[in-house]
Amino acid sequence: MQSLSTPSPIKSLIRPRSRVTRVSPNKLVLQCIYNSDSVSFQNGVGLNRADWQSSCAILASKVVAQQQPIDKSGSGGDADGVADHVAAVNGHKTSVDLNLVPIEKATSNPNSNTSIKPHQPQKPLTITDLCPAPMHGSQLRVAYQGVPGAYSEAAAGKAYPNCEAIPCDQFEVAFQAVELWIADRAVLPVENSLGGSIHRNYDLLLRHRLHIVGEVQLPVHHCLLALPGVRKEYVKRVISHPQALAQCELTLTKLGLQAAREAVDDTAGAAEYIAANNLRDTAAIASARAAELYGMQILADGIQDDSSNVTRFVMLAREPIIPRMDRPFKTSIVFAHDKGTSVLFKVLSAFAFRNISLTKIESRPHRNRPIRLVDDANVGTAKHFEYMFYVDFEASMAEVRAQNALAEVQEFTSFLRVLGSYPMDMTPWCPSIGDDDEKNPF
Ligand SMILES: O=C(O)C(=O)C[C@]1(C(=O)O)C=C[C@@H](O)C=C1
Hints:
Layout: E1 21-22, E2 32-34, E3 39-41, E4 46-47, H1 49-66, E5 68-69, H2 81-90, H3 105-108, H4 127-130, E6 141-145, H5 151-159, E7 164-168, H6 171-179, E8 185-192, E9 196-197, H7 199-207, E10 211-219, E11 223-226, E12 237-240, H8 242-247, H9 249-254, E13 260-263, H10 267-277, E14 282-286, H11 288-294, E15 297-301, E16 310-317, E17 329-336, H12 344-352, E18 358-365, E19 371-376, E20 380-385, E21 387-393, H13 400-412, E22 415-423
Parallel strand pairs: 6-7, 6-8, 12-13, 12-14
Antiparallel strand pairs: 1-5, 2-3, 3-4, 8-9, 8-16, 10-16, 11-14, 11-15, 17-21, 17-22, 18-21, 19-20
Helix pairs in contact: 10-11, 12-13
Residues 146, 150-152, 189, 192, 198, 220, 241, 243-244, 266-268, 311 line the site of prephenic acid.
C-alpha cells in the first residue's frame, strides 16, 4: 500500500446522505487525486486541503443535481443471467451498466481520463472488464474510517495491495466517498471476534446502495502507547476506539492500570491526539504502526484479550461483482417481515434444507417500523420490537441451490436485499504473536 504522510481524514462535509441514485461513469469530474499535502483535480489545478474540501462539497452538490433516479422499471442491463437474478432479488435492477467504456463520450468530454481516444483500437470486453473486483493497481483509491495507522488502513492495504488509502473521519463518509467517485472502494469493519458486530456499518449498508464485493480478515494486535518517557503508573486515562477498548478490557485490568477508559473515533486517532496535545497522563490503544507514525513508545505489546483477535472487514463498491463457482463464495443478505420474528425459522430452514451453512446472523432495529402492536381481545395489546435480519451464508449466487434458497426466502419475507456475493477470505490463519492459553475465556 502506498504510504501516506498522515493526511487528515475527509470530513463529513461532503454532502447529505446520498439518495438511491446512481452516478454515471462520465461524472468522473469528481475524481480527485488526493495527496498528503495538497490535492489536485484531474485538470491539474493545485489546491490546499481546505479548498479541496469545499470543492468537494460544491462538486458533490453538482452531482446530486446530475444524478438520475434509479430505473424502477427493471430494464437496467445486467451482466448475465445470474446478475439478473441477484438484481431481481435485490428489488432494484439498476446497477450493472454494460456500457463500461463510454466510447461516444470520448470526443464530447476531452477532460475525462476514462474515455477511449478515437484512434485507439477497440478491444472486446472480457469477463475482467465486467468485474470490478480487486485491480491491485496503484491507482485504486480505497476509503477507510480513521487516520493513518488505523487497523482499517491496514485492512485496506490487505484487500487492495498498492492502493491509495483515503482516510475518512466517519464510516458514513467512506460510503459517500465511493458514491461520489472520490474513492473506488471502501473497506469497513463489520465484526470482531471479541467485540462483536460493528452495528453502525450494518445500518449503513442498508441505507446506502453500495455492494459487498469482498471480505478481508485482519488479525488485530493492540499495543498500549504513551509519549516517550511516560511510565505505566502515570497513566490516568486510556483512550481508543470503543472496539479496541472492549478487546483489551481484561488485559488492561490485569496490567493494574488505575485509568479511566474513554472512547474516541479510531485507535490511531487516539495516538495522534495524545501526541498533538502532549498528554503525559494519557495512553492509547493502537497499532505498532501508529506508535511509529506519531512518535509514541510502546508500554505494553499484544494487549488484546485473545491472541487470535481478528476483525472482519467488507470491501464495498458501486457495482456488484459477478458471482462465480470456481472458489468459495459467501453471500450477504438482509430481510424483514411484516409478521416479525415468527418468519425467522422458515427463512433459516430454506438454507438448512439445501445444506447451506450460515456464517453470521445479526439483527438490527427496523428503523422504519421499530414497534408492532399485537392486539389480543383477551389479553390486551402487546408491543413487539421489529428487526431487520442480516444473514451471511456460504454459497455463491451463481449456485442454483443459493438461487432457490433465496427464491424461497423471498416468499417468506416482505423485504429482501442481496448485499453482495463475494469471495471468502481464505488467507491462512495467523493469529497475533503471544500465548493466551492461560487467559480466561470469560
Ligand atoms: O480504530 C481503528 O483503528 C479501526 O480501524 C476501527 C476498528 C473497528 O471499528 O473495529 C477496526 C479494527 C479493530 O477491531 C479496532 C477498531
